[in-house]
Amino acid sequence: MGYFLDPFRPRASVVHALDPRVKLGLTLAFIVATALTPPGAWPVYIVLCALALAAALLSELGVGYVLARAFLALPFALAALPVLFTTAGTPLLTLPAPLALTLTVEGAARFIGIAFKSWLSVQMAVVLVGSTPFPDLLMAMRALRIPRLLAAIIGLMWRYLFVLADEALRLLRARESRSAAPFDEPGRRVGGSLLWRARVAGGMVGNLFLRAFDRADRIYAAMLARGYDGEVRALPRPPLRAGQWAVLGAGLAMLALLALAGLLLWG
Amino acid sequence: MLFSPVPMHIPDGFLSVAVSLVLWVGVIIVVGYALKRVNADVGERQVPLMGVLAACIFAGQMLNFSVTGGTSGHLMGAALATILLGPWAAIVVMACVVGVQALIFQDGGLLALGANIVNMGVIGVTVAYFAQRTLHKLLGKWAGGLFVSGFLSGWLSIVVAALACALQLALSGSSPANLAIPAMAGIHALIGVGEGLITAGALVFLKAARRDLLEEVPAKVVGGKAVWIGGLVIAAALAILSPLASAHPDGLEWVAEERGFLDLAREPLYEIIPDYVLPGVANEALATILAGVIGALLVCGAAAGVAYLRRNRAQSSGV
Is B198 in Cβ contact with A80 (below 8 Å)? Predict the structure, then answer.
């Protein structure tokens, strides 16, 4: 079992076995195709939803797990709520006097479209990170030409994310054992004034920063000791095999057709 | 529990493809340049230093303090990173943090990642840099100056980033500008207080524990002209777009149509261009909230300009 922050779930599935570059490419294409689909193109949404479900099923991560994780991003849909009432079109129902807002069919289609798109995109991203270990994902990102230096920084960040997250949890535990734990009972009075609590949290953040600075120094010294000279070296990426190219090409073509159909028929 | 302390990570589906791609191009340019600048400053130490500090900001976002009942104040970290590391390093660090949040934890979308890095990385850092430099000049001698400048730069970085986020949503047609802008600014004016307090608390702690960190680093990594110009462009864009958007209910679309890029971007996608008319909302009231925020920003900008000129004169007269 991995660290609680790590979303990777090892399984012996088809999706896990797919090359990370193919997976990343197809996920990005799926998200772009979803974003391009106009509101009201319900058949296209259904096909996209079927694709996301198929990916979740094939990955053996558990459809429930994927759907539940995908719901995390949904509260943001609140930001799109006003389009229900501000989009011009056929009125559907009118709220009573103090609000006097008119819900339109077009507005509803637009809002549902936005929320659904965001939900589908997150599902695909959950499948991607659930089925791909982070180093493989980083390799796929380098194949997409993100700067080598940035890839190295993100790789190191990933390596120390868990160390520093543990450090932060230790700081929280230390505070909890010395002052009142505020989250156990909602009604309980918490210690100190608001300003004092904020300063304590600030001190903890500052402390975390100091430890991170020191750690960065130690890591740099260790890297130097092992011959680091500022050049980030990585193994050459193995070329994609013909079968993997075929999967990538077929997937991209299908998504392009889907997006095109949505744009032409409902745009 | 652990993620999204600040509800500003835009998921996929909320931004139009055109807006997302434009912001992606912007991010590639800015982060690429920032990487170069940091490399010139710290050289081969960059990889371990930036990597660990990005992990640190990520973990620091887990630290919170309770406000009342179940609500709590959190840290985003752009302001603290800017004050401790300088603007370019802070942009690199925040880009890594926001990128990993999106990629691994689905906190913000992948297509929308460009926009999220622009808001929390580039804009948050630039605003914090401006605010901190300016206030540091104005309040330098006063003992409470560190606390006040830390608090205000933290608060401003959140509020202005939220404004930018609302503008992007409005431009994409996902949320009407006359509602999204004041709502985002209002919510984040509150959330920003938590950010400001933690930032200030961390600075006070660091001043007591490691005075050298606060005195050396900002002096060593000075922003240069590009940051000033970038800041001015952002401030000007927000100052022009925001009042327009909330004064005209459909001001943003009007601008977009005038320029013709809306047709280019949207015509094939949507037949109905929605006009954001909401009966019964007094736009004057909403505009007032905004005017306050933008006013504060402009005052900061003006003060920064004066301070900058004065510094230049002091340097040229050899004092």
Answer: no
